Amino acid sequence: MTAPVASGRVLPTLNTDGSRNWIRPKVSDGKWWRRRRIVAWALIAFFVSLPWVRIAGRPAILLDVPRREFTLFGTTFLPTDTLLLMLLLFSCLLAVFLFSALFGRVWCGWGCPQTVYMEFVFRPIERLFEGGRSGSLILDRERRWLHPRRLGKYVAYLAISLVLAHTFLAYFVGTEALARWIRLSPAEHPAPFLVMATTTLLVFTDFTWFREQTCLIACPYGRWQSVLLDRQSMIVAYDFNRGEPRRKGGKDRPADSGDCVACNACVTTCPTGIDIRNGLQMECIHCTQCMDACDHIMRAVGKPEGLIRYASRDALEGKARHVLRPRTVLYPAAFSLAFGSFLFALNTRAKADVTLLRSGAEPFAIEADGRVSNQVRVKIANRSTEAHQYAITVAGVDGAQVIAPESPLTVKPGETRSTSVFVLLPRDAFIRGRRDVTVTISAGDAYRAEFPFNLMGPATPAPGTAP
């Protein structure tokens, strides 16, 4: 039996019989490629170095999931900061919407890690080991997947994946812990080692096997562009009016020919394997490689550059460009509201986060002298950029004994510490088993807050006393 053949268009990474079409794009050096290379290497350097950067003695970014503390550029967010984190994420989402409305899929082509590492790290390594695009195509045709050159490429891919996985892990555990674990046996830290190994395998598999399919199949951005973009959004576009009818040849073509010489250079260089001349497509990541390839051909045949260029669909039809339109008004307004609310909430939040808890063992205890003892656990998170000494006092307990072993409690910036305060009261100080008090936490002029708290005691009088 023969495999069924698809009728009509399939994914660029699939042949009509359903087999994998490996895309080996040809690099088109040009002004856009050189600009993207500068941006890409700057982003890579930023990603690798950021875990080592310190702001006010803390990592620039540390996502401490076990402790539920997330430090972003010197500011530590706690689980109680749900509103702040929600506003920040919503602001980022709106920023993506706004940039898409203005500049199309600029994120996909210029900033997405999948594109940056694929085009500027892994594919250059592939061309180095396999002898360029032609060498890769020969190995593909011969199905020599375990050729020595490809095995060498896989080793290099694995080494790069290990570096990226360790860097990724540093964002969650910090560089100090990472440096310590690297020198120890994996048996001494199995969980982090498993995370690192899994991340290495995922990165290796992604850039070895899935490659551009991650953009075409897994990433939802291409499917969102129908609602994120409008006819005024800037996209990488082919000028139909200028290019058609396309005919092969050079300067001796018929006079009614369009500027497109049907060389397919734009298809050969596309990292997702599409033909930009078919219009706006889900698979186009706006990488501008087709622009560089076409400009080179236009120069060679004596035609003006820009047959493929940044333009809007309305501009290609000769319509005026309108910067102010519903998307470019509503998105900035929504972004300003969300991000402004985030900044306001961030600047007006308390300089410390205080949590009062009861003893985990029992609500109260009866001492040998008959007094009732309550243990109040105090947890203080210092949100400021300086260390503070937090004094702990209890009001509303006249005649009682307050024991605070650590008062004042020294807490470093960004640090969270806990201590206990013991309050001893006579039995008759409780009404229906309860006594309301006020716990005051203060650190000089830097912080002061009062927290109501109810102490627990016996609900019945002591034996031998009047009811």
Write up what this structure looks like.
With 467 residues, the protein is of the alpha+beta class. The chain has two domains: 9-349, no CATH class; 352-456, Immunoglobulin-like, CATH 2.60.40.10. The chain is built from 15 helices and 16 strands. The protein has helices at residues 31-49, 82-103, 106-111, 113-130, 132-141, 148-173, 175-183, 190-210, 213-218, 221-228, 240-243, 265-268, 289-300, 313-316, 326-348; strands spanning 54-55, 58-59, 61-64, 69-72, 75-77, 235-238, 308-311, 352-358, 365-366, 372-382, 388-395, 401-403, 409-411, 416-425, 434-442, 448-456. Strands 8, 9, 10, 12 and 14 form a five-stranded antiparallel sheet that branches. Strands 13-11-15-16 form a four-stranded antiparallel sheet, with no helix packed on it. Strands 3-4-5 form a three-stranded antiparallel sheet. The longest helix has 26 residues, at 148-173.
Note the topology:
Elements: H1 31-49, E1 54-55, E2 58-59, E3 61-64, E4 69-72, E5 75-77, H2 82-103, H3 106-111, H4 113-130, H5 132-141, H6 148-173, H7 175-183, H8 190-210, H9 213-218, H10 221-228, E6 235-238, H11 240-243, H12 265-268, H13 289-300, E7 308-311, H14 313-316, H15 326-348, E8 352-358, E9 365-366, E10 372-382, E11 388-395, E12 401-403, E13 409-411, E14 416-425, E15 434-442, E16 448-456
Antiparallel strand pairs: 1-2, 3-4, 4-5, 6-7, 8-10, 9-10, 10-14, 11-13, 11-15, 12-14, 15-16
What's the N-to-C terminus distance? Answer: 96 Å
Radius of gyration: 32 Å
* Strand tally: 16
Largest sheet: 5 strands, antiparallel
| Share of helical residues | 40-55%
Q: Which stretches are low in confidence, meaning pLDDT under 50 for 5 or more residues running?
A: none
